[in-house]
Amino acid sequence: MATQKNIVDEAFPEALKILSELIKFQTVSGTSNVQLIEYCEKKLSKLGATSFKTFDEAKQRVNLFSTISGKQKLNGGGIILSGHTDVVPASSKDWSSDPFIATEKDNKIYGRGSCDMKGFIACSLALAPYFASENLKKPIHFSFTYDEETACQGAPIMIKELKKRNINCSICIVGEPTSMKAVQAHKGCYEYSTHFTGLAGHGSAPDKGVNAIEYATKFINKLMELREELKKRELKNSVFTPPYTTLQIGRIKGGLARNVIADQCSVDWELRPVVPEDGVFVNKNMDAYVKDVLLPEMKKVYPKADIKKEIIGEIIGFNKEEKSEAINLICNLTGDNSRDVVSFGTEAGLFQEIGISTVVCGPGSIEQAHKIDEYVSFDQLKRCLKMLIDLKDQISN
């Protein structure tokens, strides 16, 4: 009978191979991930998995949900292994090697997405044959989504289809990089772009134009006032650091030249709400400020002036639960009873919202995610494989 160590040793080279192949797919957020999904679906289909896919409107980005029932036909329940397939951009000139060709060095594998979070997907696929060969008491589901990095655009579409098909799952493991520690909570992530349309003109006659940049600056100043108010709304016994909802400006873009009144400007900004009420507080105040103050001033000069808010995504937080089947499971599997809280966002809250007990746990550290020369260590991949092998033992007859 194969021991756990033997299975890890056997699966590890396969996990490295799969991870290297996944890194080759340049699935930067907003671009097509179809070829990567087809690669994953083909691997799972050979094992007898049943699958369905959901798409964006252009059919260029796709979610995959596959189920392995082992040697039995199982209905309902089961455990989801969840990962997103998109990565953040990478510039070859900044990296020590090509970011989309896996490089092994010093017991690490380098490449964009190696840590966040193709490493987890690779481990899941490497062990899929073992799940398929067992008499499972519960099915194993593989959930691979698109565009998590840009406000979790793919997962809600897939989850809607889960509900439509009445697929009820008991536990979801979101394999974001947590150094294989169980994460029980994170803040929400609300992302916006606000677009200002003014009236261009010569810089020598500012009263005859409407400067979009200047009104964007007033908008930003109001956001900064609300940021200070958010600190006063800190919840008692908050589990987060910092303990209050944060607000920050990510980018401002507009204007043509120093001597031209800018007729266009855009501001990218975000909230990390501790509670949804903080998101409502900020949006209500900003919407009123735009409607009652900024727009009337702009329209006095130029009636066609406008300010439009684009909602990139409003991702709910992942809430700490006093009793969590998923957290307890991971702590038992890893032997680590610590329960962490993180500041970065994931898809965990979306699964939790539909009643699935959820945990965030995966190989690699968030300290390497999104960085130049991103990597995941061999040790972290092996620890992930060990956890998934133990998971198989938990649900096998």
Derived structural class: alpha/beta
- H-E order: HHEEEEEHEHEEEEHEEEHEHEHEEH
Helix content: 25-40%
Strand order of the biggest β-sheet: 1-2-6-3-7-16
CATH architectural category of the largest domain: 3-Layer(aba) Sandwich
The CATH superfamily name of the largest domain is: Zn peptidases
- How many helices? The count is 9
Largest sheet: 6 strands, mixed
Average pLDDT taken over every residue: 94
Give the terminus-to-terminus CA distance: 15 Å
- Whole-number total of structural domains: 2
Oligomer: single chain
Globally, the shape reads: elongated
Q: And the CATH topology of the largest domain?
A: Aminopeptidase
CATH class of the largest domain, anyone? Alpha Beta
Spans of at least 5 consecutive residues with low confidence: none
How many beta strands in the DSSP annotation?
17
Sheet-strand content, in percent, reads: 15-25%
Using only C-alpha atoms, the radius of gyration works out to 24 Å
